[in-house]
Each structure stands twice: as structure tokens, then as C-alpha cells.
Amino acid sequence: HPDGRTTAFQGGRVTGRIPRTATLRPTVVPLEWHRMGDPPTRRPVRELGNGPTDLALLASALERAAREVSAARVPSLL
Q1: How confident is the model at residue 47 (pLDDT cuts 50, 70, 90)?
Q2: Can you give the pTM of this predicted structure?
Q3: Sign of the torsion formed by the C-alpha atoms of 66, 69, 73 and 76
Q4: 61: left (phi > 0), else alpha (psi -120 to 50), else beta?
């Protein structure tokens, strides 16, 4: 806001490999305000696995569901 007020919001990020790809479980860590906008920290290579990410599986499921109900396309917000 131009007058300096702030607007509270909650953000989240879906990332990581699914369990059957032999990766460690997803972790949740607090992020200090001064680090907002920083790129995500990289996980050690041994944790990466070779399967699809949770986000890729979620996006695929959403696309299939939208096709099944003939949902109208919505323009990108970006």
C-alpha cells in the first residue's frame, strides 16, 4: 500500500520427489522475512531421486480432472 500498510498472506510451495523414488521425506522449515524472494536452498544430490515431483503429479491430475468435466480455460495470471 502507498501509505505503508501491509497485507497479511500465507504462501506455500509444493516440491520434492514422491516417496517411492527413495528420497527423504519432505521437510517444512520457517523462512525469515528478510529471505523472502531468495531462491530455494538446494538439497544434497543423494536426496533427489529420479521420479516425478509431487508438483508434476498434482498438475497432471488437475489437467485430467479439468478435461473430464470440460472445464473452460482460464487465462494465466502471469
Answers
A1: very low
A2: 0.38
A3: negative
A4: alpha
